[in-house]
């Protein structure tokens, strides 16, 4: 997790990709290359613009840094799952309902002014947050993201799975992503399409992309 003073503009260094410490890891990483309609729409929405600020909640990933900065934008990485493990012990239970810990978590990870970001790559992080923490994070994102900006979110397609794969997402081009499975971790709650619509009810719109693979893609408009 980057120090608070380094949260702002990140333009690529030798930093390694963030990861959570409480994964149930597999013997080797499973790597797939896939087309992503959600990713394609996310970048189509900021096409022909420059100087935007993108929040990447999957941690520091050099592929993502390179791609976004080459488009002329700025990227701010946050290792959200690692921070959850550090603050709450990585357990999706009542620990994530402690209001003081939630406020400390928001202060350490999402302490930005209104309209600070023009897009957010949430990846699969939300499915590992218990309800109290999840709603607090979404409220804060609503506060710090500009109106009409987009959030890209992935959810495990097995809605009631007790555990879900943990991935890192490495952008290859505007519609192609390298997905690296790094083990599993407990899911915090079940998500179906109707539940996701309610979850993002405060936002302007929610769009789902059907896929044959294990990930559901969701684009949310602020």
CATH homologous superfamily caption: Vaccinia Virus protein VP39
How many structural units, i.e. domains?
1
Structural class determined from secondary elements: alpha/beta
The name CATH uses for the topology is Rossmann fold
Work out the helix count.
6
Question: How many angstroms separate the termini?
Answer: 26 Å
Uncertain residue ranges: 1-21
Q: Strand arrangement, largest sheet?
A: 3-2-4-5-9-8
Shape: globular
What does this structure look like?
The structure is a single chain. The protein has helices spanning 37-44, 62-70, 80-88, 99-109, 131-144, 193-199; strands at 30-35, 53-56, 74-77, 117-123, 145-156, 163-173, 176-186, 205-209, 215-221. By secondary structure, the chain is an alpha/beta fold. The protein has a single domain, classed as Rossmann fold. A hairpin with a 2-residue loop joins strand 6 and strand 7 (176-186). The chain is globular. It starts with 29 loop residues before the first strand and ends with a strand.
Briefly characterize the structure.
With 222 residues, the protein is an alpha/beta fold. The protein has six helices and nine strands.
Short key terms for the protein model shown above:
globular; 222 residues; disordered N terminus; 6 helices; alpha/beta; Rossmann fold; three-stranded antiparallel beta sheet; six-stranded mixed beta sheet; 9 strands; 30% strand; single chain
Topology:
Blueprint: E1 30-35, H1 37-44, E2 53-56, H2 62-70, E3 74-77, H3 80-88, H4 99-109, E4 117-123, H5 131-144, E5 145-156, E6 163-173, E7 176-186, H6 193-199, E8 205-209, E9 215-221
Parallel strand pairs: 2-3, 2-4, 4-5
Antiparallel strand pairs: 1-7, 5-9, 6-7, 8-9
Helix pairs in contact: 3-4
């Amino acid at each position: 997790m980057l120090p608070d003073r380094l949260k702002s503009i990140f333009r690529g260094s030798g930093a390694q990709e963030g990861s959570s410490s409480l994964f149930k890891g597999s013997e080797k990483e499973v790597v797939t290359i896939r087309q992503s309609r959600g990713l394609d729409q996310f970048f189509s929405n900021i096409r022909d613009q420059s100087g935007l600020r993108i929040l990447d909640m999957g941690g520091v990933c050099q592929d993502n840094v390179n791609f976004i900065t080459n488009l002329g934008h700025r990227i701010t990485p946050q290792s959200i799952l690692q921070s959850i493990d550090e603050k709450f012990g990585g357990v999706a239970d009542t620990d994530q309902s402690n209001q003081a810990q939630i406020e400390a978590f928001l202060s350490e990870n999402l302490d930005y002014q209104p309209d600070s970001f023009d897009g957010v790559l949430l990846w699969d992080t939300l499915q590992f947050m218990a309800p109290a923490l999840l709603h607090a994070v979404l409220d804060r994102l609503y506060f710090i993201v500009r109106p009409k900006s987009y959030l890209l979110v992935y959810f495990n397609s097995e809605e009631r799975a007790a555990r879900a794969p943990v991935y890192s997402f490495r952008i290859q081009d505007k519609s192609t992503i390298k997905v690296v499975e790094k083990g599993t971790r407990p899911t915090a709650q079940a998500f179906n399409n109707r539940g996701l619509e309610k979850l993002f009810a405060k936002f302007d719109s929610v769009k789902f992309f059907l896929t044959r693979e294990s990930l559901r893609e969701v684009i949310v408009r602020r």
